[in-house]
Amino acid sequence: MVLEQEVNTAGRIRRVALASAVGTTIEWYDYFAYSTATALVFNKLFFPSLSPASGTLAAFATLGVGFVARPLGGIVWGHFGDRVGRKAMLVASLVLMGLATAGVGALPTFRQAGVIAPVLLVVLRVLQGISAGGEWGGAALMAVEHAPEGKRGRYGSFSQIGVPAGLILAQLVFFLVNSSLSPDEFRSWGWRIPFLVSLVLVGVGLVIRLRVEESPVFAKLRSTGARSRLPIVEVLRARPKQVLAAAVSFIANTALGYIFFAYLLSYGTSVLKLSSTTMLVVVIVGSVVWLASIVAAAIWSDSVGRKPVYLAGSMLLVVWSIPFFLLVDTAQPWLLIVAVVVLNIGLGATYGPQSALFSELFESRFRYSGSSFAYAVGAVLGGGFAPLIAASLQSSTGTSLSVSLYMVGVGVLSLLAVLAFPRKPLVPVTAE
């Protein structure tokens, strides 16, 4: 009987882990499809009246708008995630993201509809941002709150690998479409295909997510009536230092991450004059390394603790920022791959343990709100306008060194925040 219960428990945890990974992969596929299209074609499709440099800046600005909406999503999804349940919010966020992404694929361009086209693009990007603001928190908590003691980093990594997996999937789809069509065909209609594919992927994700059980931690909160009435207010009152430290710790990871997979595509094709196919391959290789390093870092954190792993990754991001663009500027594909491989090891070390770490900073009654809000604020301050800042620095100074110095600056900022983390979990990942 005991053996049967253990088998059932293990099976349940695996289903939750799979649902977390698959659902998050689909969610971030949608989000990164936009980022990829921004770097490749949105400047020409939605801002054709601007100069190439100004059009690129405008396209990256719409990318940043989605980040501004993420704290709102973190508050909304976090509130209902702490009040109604983790599972329900995961399903709702996935549906919203899928509809918004498919909507981008159906948009008229500037030449077809005039100024209304970029306006609608911004609206849909805001909806993507609201969805992303709550998606991560729900997926992370479902994985971590189901996980057995001593394996929260390992199981929490399933929500984390969805980010590079979604990026890889988006890059592969764009690579296949881009390489199968002529440049004119891709700009005319081919760019829409990756966005419309989202409808199929969301259907798959919904089937998987609807089959998992609610988090046992939230189920206990609901049965005991211990839910917070206003979780975002309570977490900001009870754990303001933890919210601040968590948000700032994420700035470097998301800033350097978006420089890697959004700005680098644009920089490689427009400044270095490399083909979009070459740059997509470079980003895909880096993303695979990112995914593997996330898993390795998360498992390592179960042994040595979250803080040491974070510190190692944060220091690598700071140290590698200058060599990164020195290698990229050679325009040699194999040196570009070296640059992104090392960078992504640092990204993985500062992302793999994140689900477990953030969960261990907040009590369960306001954990969804605290984790989601900190994650979303860090994303805004870091990744929200990182490609725009990088493009502006490169355009105004004429050198990538300015971008590297910006990377060093945000890296040091996050490193200081990591130093403020407790050495051991602050709270138990159980219902209090």
TrEMBL record:
<protein>
    <recommendedName>
        <fullName>Putative proline/betaine transporter</fullName>
    </recommendedName>
</protein>
<feature type="transmembrane region" description="Helical">
    <location>
        <begin position="189"/>
        <end position="212"/>
    </location>
</feature>
<comment type="function">
    <text>May be a proton symporter involved in the uptake of osmolytes such as proline and glycine betaine.</text>
</comment>
<feature type="transmembrane region" description="Helical">
    <location>
        <begin position="373"/>
        <end position="391"/>
    </location>
</feature>
<feature type="transmembrane region" description="Helical">
    <location>
        <begin position="116"/>
        <end position="143"/>
    </location>
</feature>
<feature type="transmembrane region" description="Helical">
    <location>
        <begin position="403"/>
        <end position="421"/>
    </location>
</feature>
<dbReference type="GO" id="GO:0015293">
    <property type="term" value="F:symporter activity"/>
</dbReference>
<comment type="similarity">
    <text>Belongs to the major facilitator superfamily. Metabolite:H+ Symporter (MHS) family (TC 2.A.1.6) family.</text>
</comment>
<keyword id="KW-0813">Transport</keyword>
<feature type="transmembrane region" description="Helical">
    <location>
        <begin position="243"/>
        <end position="265"/>
    </location>
</feature>
<dbReference type="InterPro" id="IPR020846">
    <property type="entry name" value="MFS_dom"/>
</dbReference>
<keyword id="KW-0769">Symport</keyword>
<feature type="transmembrane region" description="Helical">
    <location>
        <begin position="57"/>
        <end position="77"/>
    </location>
</feature>
<keyword id="KW-0472">Membrane</keyword>
<feature type="transmembrane region" description="Helical">
    <location>
        <begin position="155"/>
        <end position="177"/>
    </location>
</feature>
<feature type="transmembrane region" description="Helical">
    <location>
        <begin position="277"/>
        <end position="300"/>
    </location>
</feature>
<dbReference type="Pfam" id="PF07690">
    <property type="entry name" value="MFS_1"/>
</dbReference>
<keyword id="KW-1133">Transmembrane helix</keyword>
<dbReference type="InterPro" id="IPR011701">
    <property type="entry name" value="MFS"/>
</dbReference>
<feature type="transmembrane region" description="Helical">
    <location>
        <begin position="89"/>
        <end position="110"/>
    </location>
</feature>
<keyword id="KW-0812">Transmembrane</keyword>
<dbReference type="GO" id="GO:0005886">
    <property type="term" value="C:plasma membrane"/>
</dbReference>
<feature type="transmembrane region" description="Helical">
    <location>
        <begin position="309"/>
        <end position="328"/>
    </location>
</feature>
<dbReference type="InterPro" id="IPR005829">
    <property type="entry name" value="Sugar_transporter_CS"/>
</dbReference>
<feature type="domain" description="Major facilitator superfamily (MFS) profile">
    <location>
        <begin position="16"/>
        <end position="426"/>
    </location>
</feature>
<feature type="transmembrane region" description="Helical">
    <location>
        <begin position="334"/>
        <end position="352"/>
    </location>
</feature>
<keyword id="KW-1003">Cell membrane</keyword>
<dbReference type="InterPro" id="IPR036259">
    <property type="entry name" value="MFS_trans_sf"/>
</dbReference>
